[in-house]
Design brief:
With about 180 residues, this protein is an alpha/beta fold. It has a single domain, classed as Restriction endonuclease-like alpha-beta roll domain (Restriction endonuclease-like alpha-beta roll fold, Roll). It has four helices and eleven strands. The strands form two sheets. A six-stranded mixed β-sheet has the order 3-4-5-6-7-11. It has a five-stranded mixed β-sheet with strand order 2-1-8-9-10, covered by helices on one side. Helix 1 (about 35-50) packs across helix 4 (about 135-145). The longest helix is centred in the middle third of the chain and has 15 residues, at about 110-125. The termini are far apart.
Length: about 180
Amino acid sequence: MAIKSTIYKAELQITDMDRHYYQDHALVIARHPSENAERMMVRILAFALHGSEMLQFTRGLSSDDEPDLWQKSLSDEIEVWIDLGQPDEKRIRKACGRARQVIIYLYQQRSNAVWWQQQRNKLMRFDNLTVVSLDSETVAGLAAMSQRAMRLQCTIQDGSVWFGNGDDQALEFTAEIFKRSRS
């Protein structure tokens, strides 16, 4: 018998002063049996950083044809494709061909720079691609907030991010951008 996903729930309050987006979201997150707390919380962070009424979690690890999050238009076109980890160039090329904007969040700091050096020349040609690197301290802090039921707040201003759970756990950081989309 296959192990089923564990369900997590999060009340996420987003205050994004850079985009003028202020919204509360009730999220239901299915944590795949092979997914660790760090990866799941990076998914929630990615949702907070790009929050919109149309952004949604996908089948993620359960599907090779879908990213971790995406935003589709009303006509079912992929507007935003968000992947986590270190996808190969073939997957990134496919995503850039399918979506208007592709964002990759690297969250394994020890290997992020090595991966980027190996992929950099191949990926610079994609105008609609953004690559963001999160440091290990940020990822560990996010994982420490992981609970089956969460109340989270995210405030974004001038590229700086404050992410907390309303208790005593809060992070303030600025992610490193390896590549910024030109579109």
